[in-house]
Design brief:
Largest interface: A-B, 53 and 53 residues
Number of helices of chain A: 11
EC number (chains A, B): 2.3.1.46, 2.3.1.31
Radius of gyration of chain A: 20 Å
GO molecular function (chains A, B): homoserine O-acetyltransferase activity; homoserine O-succinyltransferase activity
InterPro entries (chains A, B): AB_hydrolase_1, AB_hydrolase_fold, HAT_MetX-like
Oligomer: homodimer
CATH topology of the largest domain in chain A: Rossmann fold
Strand content of chain A: 15-25%
Strand order of the largest sheet of chain A: 1-2-4-3-5-6-9-10
Keywords (chains A, B): Acyltransferase, Transferase
Shape of chain A: globular
Pfam family, one (chains A, B): Abhydrolase_1
CATH class of the largest domain in chain A: Alpha Beta
Structural class of chain A: alpha/beta
CATH superfamily of the largest domain in chain A: Alpha/Beta hydrolase fold, catalytic domain
Chain lengths: 331, 331
């Protein structure tokens, strides 16, 4: 390529949004043509890291000059972080089903299939790594098991090879709350209640004890406990940003998830949170045992439980740094 | 009394049901005239033990010749048990509000007040002991704090001096499920869902892992997880035996509960279950610390969590035996 064209290349924006067509065969629901929304942030020639979050995450990791609004991974992505879009090219996507238009059973393997179709369309032959938190960890395990040539390294945070049966029961009841509400009000009330129950699974008794240890009040002859303001706000925020169908189908997707750890043959870092009520430490340890010598286990104790990856961003970042060997760093 | 009358005295049935009028002043709702249903089982001259259970318990502890149907404490009461109705006179009652007719905030102190009015009407000057499980433990602590002359000894199982803020949030959401259902269907659907969520708090991940570790199934394109059959049955059973108003008001009552342990001046045995998700061991330890030298702590590890008192009846019985010094036993 002529040297005269070089300035054009450097003028290419380092934060790109788009979507690509995917022809999928869903594991439980058959053929589907879908569009997969993605974002890319970072130099075009940098090694690519895929970053995937919880079921309510989306392709927007963090603000840039082009799209300044904060993203779901705002505290984890930035110039001072291991996930530095100056060093890596960070790729992320909207999960299949996240728009609420897909009222079908969705499997984590379907998400991995969508990624496998997205990468070549973006000219990415192989990911330097995949960093998945919560649901993103499940998707990463599926990608590594089903499409091992597409990534060099995997980091899973707070997500295992199976859903824990107790957590599955908890989610099933949240889906029932949505269904109960839908028969009366439309989506908002049941979805808010489902999210409120989910918040209890994302957080811990330690945090609630710290924040909400006060006597309840009586309002119109009904007891209202201190945590209800917080839970109300959490429910309302969620209703504003996630369609009920998306919630139900992605919640189901966690319960459909199953990966045989022996099928994951990549170097894998497993970051577990002691105190996570959705993904017990014992399941993360079992995952690591199944992965064998390919795996490294790092354990964090946090009063934020399952949500530690969103709240303990300094500590998570430090663990990522040792897992990912950022480009350009000597170690 | 002439000796000739003795046979009449022994013919008095040892299992008695009845109700007495109580003129109460509810802590949060003012004056109320109520009828308090009770049962007495055991010899009229035996020392009296009050036995109190969870919010859905009632006065019927265990079957006898007169009322053979099994009671909620069936595994804890009997000739081979510490709670032997041949040695003790066992007293129990229907909780205030349990009939669903009282749509008012009810406090555990109101239950204690009802007991304080019931005892003299039954000719009982003082209880030899009070054994309370779960909600019954809260009522026992209130009775000991407010009416210390009425009992000699207290045994509390899986209930503390305060509700844990996380457990309160969990219950508040269950009450919301009831309210959501009531606007559509009447009581059944929301109450069943509330109970199902409650079951998750009564049991543990360990038990669910043991019982429900199988892949989910797809039914009409929806995911159904293995625990749902169990939860459906639990919800349906509950709807058949507890009015929604009773559930809501007694659930609230737990969240209104507060006792200063320093006010409890009786010998007290505290039986805590490690793994209880509603009443964390730390709160039981704090209770014991507040009680000081009057208290003995016994800790049970059980995969049944909060429900251990209903499921680990042999182990609970052994702990009761050492706490209660059954009459007629040499130690």
């Amino acid at each position: 390529m002529p040297a005269a064209l070089a300035p054009v290349a450097t003028a290419v924006p380092t934060h790109v949004r788009g979507s690509h067509r995917a022809e999928l065969v869903l594991r439980h629901a058959g053929p589907l043509v879908a569009r997969i929304g993605y974002e890319l942030q970072g130099p075009a020639d940098a090694p690519v890291l895929f970053v995937a979050g919880g079921i309510s995450a989306n392709r927007h990791l963090a603000g840039s000059a082009l799209w300044p609004e904060p993203g779901w991974a705002q505290g984890l992505v930035g110039a001072q972080r291991t996930l530095d879009p100056g060093r890596w090219r960070l790729l992320s996507m909207d999960y299949l089903g996240a728009d609420g238009q897909l009222d079908l059973p969705i499997d984590t393997a379907d998400q991995a299939q969508a990624i496998a179709q997205l990468l070549p369309q973006l000219g990415i032959a192989q990911l330097a790594g995949f960093v998945g938190y919560s649901y993103g960890a499940l998707v990463g395990l599926q990608l590594a098991a089903q499409h091992p040539s597409l990534l060099q390294r995997l980091v899973v945070v707070s997500g295992a090879h199976r859903p824990h049966p107790y957590a599955s029961a908890w989610r099933a009841l949240q889906r029932r709350a949505v269904a109960l509400g839908q028969l009366q009000y439309g989506d908002a009330h049941g979805l808010a209640l489902a999210r409120q129950f989910a918040m209890l699974s994302y957080r811990t008794p330690e945090e609630f004890d710290e924040r909400f240890d006060a006597a309840p009040v009586l309002i119109n002859g009904r007891v209202r406990v201190p945590a209800e303001d917080y839970l109300d706000a959490a429910g309302a925020r969620f209703v504003g940003r996630m369609p009920a169908t998306a919630f139900v189908r992605l919640s189901e997707s966690i319960d459909l998830h199953r990966v045989d750890p022996a099928q994951v043959q990549l170097p894998t870092t497993v970051i577990a949170v002691e105190g996570d009520r959705l993904v017990p430490l014992a399941d993360m340890v079992n995952l690591v045992e199944g992965l064998g010598s390919r795996a490294t286990l790092r354990v964090l104790r946090s009063a934020y439980g399952h949500d530690a990856f969103l709240k303990e961003t300094d500590r998570i970042d430090a663990l990522l740094a040792s897992a990912l060997h950022p480009p350009g760093e000597t170690r």
